[in-house]
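Dear Dr. H.,

I hope your travels went smoothly. While you were away I took the liberty of generating a structure for the chain from your last submission, since the lab meeting agenda had it listed for discussion. I wanted you to have the full record in hand beforehand rather than looking at slides cold. The sequence, exactly as received, is reproduced here:
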Amino acid sequence: MRHPGEGGVIAKRVRSDIDIRPVAHAIGKIIAVLGATMLIPMAVDWWGGDPHWTSFVEAGTLTVIIGLLTMVATSGPSESLTIQQAFLLTAGLWAVIPLFGALPFMLGAPGVRFSDAYFEAMSGVTTTGTTAFPALDDLPRGTNLWRVMLHWFGGLGIVVVAMVFLPVMKVGGMQFFRSEGFDTLGKILPRAAEIAAEMTRLYLILTAACIISFIIAGMNGFDAIVHALSAISTGGFSNYDASMGAYLGAPEWVACIFMILASIPFIRMVQAMRGNFVPLWQDVQVRAYLRWIFYACALIMIYRVLWMGQGGEPMFLIRETVFNTISTFSGTGFASTNMAEWGHFPIALLIVCGLIGGCTGSTGCSVKIFRYLVLLEAVRAQIRRMHSPHRVYPLRLEGRPLDSDVVSSVMTFFTLFMLSFGLLIVGLALTGLHPRTALTAAWTSIANVGPAWGPEISANGAINQFPLAAKWLMIFGMYLGRLELIAVVVLFLPRFWRT
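The corresponding predicted structure, in token form, is as follows:
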């Protein structure tokens, strides 16, 4: 005879199960596509007569087989994803893709061990841009192309995630954008395909325009493709140890334009493509982003001229300052000079810029302009309440009211971000890194910026001399930062696994 409470216990146990089949099926499909794209760098190396083309054949074959087997093993009726499944899919993709993306680096050039290969792939997919390879000039063309292809895939992926999943999952105040052109609540999977198609179309147009612009500015075809894929994804990988220092002048201005375009909300550019430019101009994020970039460039330029006495040709000084500041602010990480020589104030200001980042719904990284605007509104309202405690001051952004759950989510995200940043600094310092290196390495990983400064950093900005523990801490930091922290932390909460 069954105990009266037994049925309730069983029902609760059933409800606590999360079906991971749709998640694994989606990951398997993406992994299979990833393996197929390895044919592109393989063809580049084969055409150039580089023997490392076989490594892409091996890695691609293995990746496609595993992806297809996963798809077959988890096939079934298509259905909408639940919130839990959306979290698992987002977190799983950015952990698994670097695993397979690292294969060409281990099987071919530069033939590194797993930790360095996974670091490079994670830096690529998260569009961080920090490298573990000390000699980029010596790498085969196919390898350098694969590095920036990982950037390009990661940049497109994070735009789709920001438009489809994060608003529904209410990560870091992203629920504010749930009605921003796409209604995804309750039907994540069907709308994801439509949104992905729209974003991919825009992404391809921007990439093609950037490639053509780089060629017109003086780059050869291959270098234009490499730097365009890196700029549009705000990644920062280059096929030169000197980064953009190999192409001074017009290419820097081209990069500035496309780094800014890649850092503003893609939904606004989609609307502009449809002939409606008003939302782009009226977007408070875009206006604040451009304004803050101007302030940062002006302050650094004034400091360099008046305080450091770094004169010379005015246009050279302006171009160098503007390019490297925009590169850092957007989270791209290109460099055309050693910014550490600018002085302490510019470096401190650049670190602040990197902690701000681009706009929400772009390939930009870090905290994002939107969250700082919400925080500023909350601070302004609090100051007003102190002056007139009996008056009501509703919070508004872009003319829309800010719900309390949005403000709370933003404050939670900001607190968690800064706490993670601090803990990462301490953790890296405990591995034996110089304090300055630990600070900038934590900054570049959690904010997905790219550059780092310190005695352990190689001439081309590589972290190959870091202890193994430091590399894995940075890998975790890049992963956390790219997935907006809460999307990862929530997986460790017991209540998450109860539906």
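Two observations you may find useful: The beta strands are 396-397, 400-401. Residues 1-16, 181-189 have pLDDT under 50 and may be disordered.

With kind regards,
E. W.
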